Amino acid sequence: MTPPRGKGRPPGAPRNIGWLYVLPALLVYAAFLVWPVIRGVWFSLYEWDGLGTGTWAGLSNYARVATDASLRGAFGHALVLVVFYAVIPCLLAFVLVAAVSRTRVRGLAFFRTVLFLPQVIAMVAVAVAWQWMYSPDGPVNGFLRLLHTLGLPDWSRGWLGDFDLALPAVGLVGTWVEVGLAMVLFLAGVQKIPRELYEAARIDGAGPVAEFRAVTLPGLRRELGVALTLTSVAALRNFDLVYVTTKGGPGEATKVPAYEVYHRTFETGEVGLACAIGVTLAALVFALTAGISRLAEGRRGAA
Amino acid sequence: MIGTRERVLNYAILVAFAFVALFPLVGAVQQALHLPDLDLSAFQRAWRDGHFGTYLRNSVIVTTVTVALATVLSIMAGYALGTLEFRGSGALFLLFLAGLTVPTETVVVPLYFDLRTLGLDNTYAGVILPQVAQSVAFGSFWMRAYFRSVPRALLDAARVDGASSWTTLWRVLVPMGRPAVLTMVLLVAMWTWNEFLLPLVVLNSAEDLRTAPLGLSFFQGAHQTDYTLLTAGALIIAAPIVVLYVFLQRHFITGMLSGAVKE
């Protein structure tokens, strides 16, 4: 068989042998990722306790995701966590980068390593460390008591057991983890901005704020898109931290969709509903990834 | 001109952020080691009562096998998708790419029931195969990008010399692409080591197969507020990846940051 010439294919280049190379990966991928996704969608259309036979439920599980107060609450909490995991870290990272972009920093590699470190630690270990941080006699309350001795009100409390503050407390752990990611991304992006742009801005008499708005911010558009995507997805997929620190409590204060998938399957026997939550979560992650990357690429095209 | 004052302020901001990043970690180390007395008894107790030796061994087995399988499969798939233009390669690439966005939460419930039917629940294979599948989605995407960056002329030269596509891949391209492969290996190792939800569900009754993060969560359930013991356990399970990170941080950072960046 002679492959057709032209069209970018060099003469004699192998063709369908490509399928043989992909096949092993494709088989594992199809069996243990694609198939479970299909099965998940299938399960989500049934009412099933995981033991007996399921009954066809159509889209009623999805209707429950949209209407059930407790599940809507869980998705609402996920949105709050997006603020803590994505919005706050990106804002903080901008503060840092705005400062650093004007000067050359010695030891940047060291700072980069340190700031990124929380990203590589197992979330279960992070959760345990923060449980200690938030514990009644832990460092957070210790610091607040110190402020109290200086005349401020006593803000110390059991953070993870507080109905109003447990969710922000969990969110702040996310802020702590994700801020390094945003910073390292922005620091890398800032280095790619041509120095001449800064010099031009300075010749025009731009101060730090004007310079940031005219040069740094537009130059970091792509990095901002990547940072927002990665951190928001981490916020939506927040299972480990909630499982270890609060189990969704107190009450339903820290219930999140990822935890509900587990809880509804193994604790309340609502497998169909759990799968509907899982599929909704995947749809959200997908939409978020597609949406943000579009926004970030929008103006600059393929740059 | 940039004044000394601004420069000092910059360093102050950097140091403050670094301090916040390190504080919980250094605090945990201090707590577990009883510094400055340096009392290792918490580690000994955690190691003995928490069975962390077993859990680390399990994690080493699961991680090693997952990484080995995912690496070989991803190299082959990425090679085909990146250099061998065959019919359907574009669609296949999109299929793998879509897998990058599928959260474990979406597949873990169906996996639980199907693995149970297959008799793979509470086995190493039950935690390994789904993680190979997830890693292959990233790996083939990552390796495809590397193989596409290889100059066309090199591939043609190898073919002119009579090398088969198989020989070209393993004798020429993979040795040349060691940095790309190493980055992939490290990331897959880290994700597999740190994975929690999948082992929690699949290894629901096999105590002696628990991976390190799973072991820590059960240990935490048993020692609720003994923070000295718990932070010691947390340090034990975090240490292997942190050590790798300290030595090879450039790979971790570039990999994790570019993993999400479209080419």
How does this model look, in words?
Chain A is mostly helical and 303 residues long. In chain A, 68% of the residues lie in helices and 1% in strands. Chain A has one domain (42-298): MetI-like (MetI-like fold), CATH 1.10.3720. Chain A has a two-stranded antiparallel ribbon. The longest helix of chain A has 32 residues, at 69-100. Chain B is mostly helical and 263 residues long. Chain B has one domain: Orthogonal Bundle (MetI-like fold), CATH 1.10.3720.10. Chain B is built from 12 helices and no strands. Chain B has helices at residues 4-33, 41-49, 52-83, 89-99, 104-118, 124-149, 152-160, 165-176, 178-194, 197-202, 212-222, 227-258. The mean pLDDT of chain B is 90. At the A-B interface, helix 1, helix 3, helix 4, helix 5 and helix 7 of A face helix 1, helix 3, helix 4, helix 5 and helix 6 of B.
Topology:
The complex is a heterodimer of chains A (303) and B (263).
Chain A: H1 17-43, E1 46-47, E2 55-56, H2 60-67, H3 69-100, H4 108-116, H5 123-134, H6 139-149, H7 166-192, H8 195-203, H9 208-219, H10 221-236, H11 240-245, H12 257-266, H13 271-298
Antiparallel strand pairs in A: 1-2
Helix pairs in contact in A: 1-13, 2-13, 3-7, 3-10, 4-7, 7-10, 8-9, 10-13, 12-13
Chain B: H1 4-33, H2 41-49, H3 52-83, H4 89-99, H5 104-118, H6 124-149, H7 152-160, H8 165-176, H9 178-194, H10 197-202, H11 212-222, H12 227-258
Helix pairs in contact in B: 1-12, 2-12, 3-6, 3-9, 3-11, 4-6, 6-9, 9-12, 11-12
